[in-house]
Specification:
By secondary structure, this protein is α/β, with parallel strands linked by helices. The protein has helices at 38-43, 59-66, 93-104, 138-154, 172-191, 206-209, 232-239, 250-255, 268-280, and strands spanning 27-29, 35-37, 72-75, 110-117, 120-127, 158-164, 196-204, 218-221, 261-262.
Length: 287
């Protein structure tokens, strides 16, 4: 006899242990165990309201937060990485790129948008950790360089949102060259007298930290973000010493002078524009 908890309409049969009371993606559980509806999370700038945990987000969400009415023009959107070294470990690099593009809908680990923020035109480059860990390859460096060139040409402030595991090992020295390349471009931006705001999000590590992420006129971060060159475990293993509490969190770096400010995500747009106005000595704009 068929059990009462099985459903057979139109050939469908679902046992109770396979049923889900809540559709996947409707709820989010923070690391501290707090549960919030996904819609509510989005309305709260992707911050868990009970414990203030800042969920990792990507360029899509940051563009929504920073650009007025989410209106912007993306440049160099079709720029993609090649495989000049024919790199292969457990998988071919070319296959990893295709898989990452199919999974994320992105071409690479950074996007560049131009639009208005509080009524003023800005250039925003934002990294996506979902694309091979936000690793910095030659395309990432090139897109950031082109974004800076656009800012110089149009005399616009430049905003960099970093979220990266560091250099992309599959591109070896070609990846490391991007540290010098982006740093040189930022020097040109400074020579042009244009503001550079660097936002370090969770995580900002490796070659990203060793180059453009820490070169802002103002370096800011979100609460609880991991920021450093090597990870805490590697540093501990190398030094053989116990690390201070909160080592490499944004709060620790602020206390030790590596950051200028930590901003809650709901205040990012206002704070970034405040710093731009202060650097350019223009009247402070309000939201």
């Amino acid at each position: 006899m068929s059990s009462w908890f099985k459903r057979k309409e139109k050939g469908i049969q679902t046992a109770t242990e396979e049923k889900k009371d809540t559709p996947k993606g409707l709820w989010y559980k923070s690391p501290t165990g707090k549960i919030v509806e996904s819609d509510e999370l989005a309305k709260n700038f992707y911050v868990s309201p009970e414990d203030d945990y800042h969920v990792r987000i990507g360029s899509k969400e940051y563009f929504e937060i920073l650009f007025d009415d989410n209106k912007f023009k993306e440049i160099d959107e079709n720029l993609t990485s090649k495989d000049p070294l024919k790199f292969e470990d457990t998988k071919k690099y070319s296959d990893r790129l295709k898989a990452a593009q199919a999974k994320t809908g992105l071409k690479d680990a950074v996007r560049t948008g131009i639009g208005k923020s509080l009524g003023k035109n800005v250039v925003v480059c934002c990294m996506d950790f979902a694309f091979i860990g936000g690793s910095m390859g030659s395309v990432v460096g090139e897109k950031i360089a082109r974004g800076i060139d656009y800012a110089i040409k149009k005399k616009l402030p430049f905003i960099m949102i970093s979220k990266s595991g560091g250099a992309r090992m599959m591109e070896a020295a070609l990846s490391l060259m991007q540290l010098a390349k982006t740093s040189a471009k930022l020097a040109q931006l400074a020579d042009a007298g244009l503001p550079y705001i660097s936002l370090c999000t969770d995580p900002t590590t490796g070659g990203t930290t060793a180059s453009y992420a820490m070169l802002g006129d103002i370096n800011i971060s979100e609460p609880g973000a991991l920021i450093g060159f090597a990870g805490p475990r590697i540093v501990k293993d190398f030094t053989g010493k116990d690390l201070p509490e909160g080592f490499q969190t944004s709060e620790f770096l602020l206390e030790h002078g590596f950051l200028d400010f930590i901003s809650h995500r709901r205040d990012l747009k206002k704070k970034i524009n405040l710093y731009i106005d202060l650097i350019q000595n223009t009247p402070v704009r309000v939201a």
